[in-house]
Specification:
Blueprint lengths: L2 H5 L3 E3 L6 E12 L4 E12 L3 E3 L3 H10 L2 E2 L1 H16 L3 E10 H5 L9 E8 H4 L1 H17 L1
Helix pairs in contact: 2-3
The structure holds zinc ion.
């Protein structure tokens, strides 16, 4: 499936300019370097500019990019870019927090370490207030675990 097929008719015109955040989206993917799973959570935020996306579409976009051979850095960027292309929002922020079996089972054997990747576009990159609001929210989520 393509991003366009996943989104379908799920984009709506809406006069809303506050940050929308969908947190703790579980994902399971497969590391293309080692053919071993990596899995974790993705937090996705955007600031609409006249268009919003049905909230249930966001986890489906995450799944679309997770369910293939991947590297976490690229997956994070692809999710952000898909929302950027579909909505032309004021900004997009995506953070992925994942455990990699290739780290846990192979050489280094670090059972509890996780890898954090982020992709910040538009206002999330240029406006420190927006970026801090998003990142402090993600940090507070992690502190709860
Ligand atoms: Zn790997």
């Amino acid at each position: 499936m393509s991003v366009t097929e996943v989104i379908g008719k799920g984009v709506f015109t809406e006069d809303c300019s506050e940050m929308v955040l969908v947190k703790d989206i579980e994902f399971y993917s497969l590391c293309e370097h080692h053919m071993l799973p990596f899995y974790g959570r993705v937090h996705v935020a955007y600031i609409p500019d006249g268009k919003i996306i049905g909230l249930s579409k966001i986890p489906r976009i995450v799944d679309l990019f997770a369910r293939r051979l991947q590297v976490q850095e690229r997956m994070t960027q692809q999710i952000a870019q898909a929302l950027q292309d579909a909505l032309k929002p004021k900004g997009v922020g995506v953070v992925a927090d994942a455990h990699h079996l290739c780290m846990m089972m192979r050489g280094v054997q670090k059972q509890n370490s996780s890898a954090l990747t982020s992709c910040l576009l538009g206002a999330f990159q240029t406006d420190s207030k927006t970026r801090n609001e998003f990142l402090s929210f993600v940090r507070s989520l992690n502190a709860l675990r």
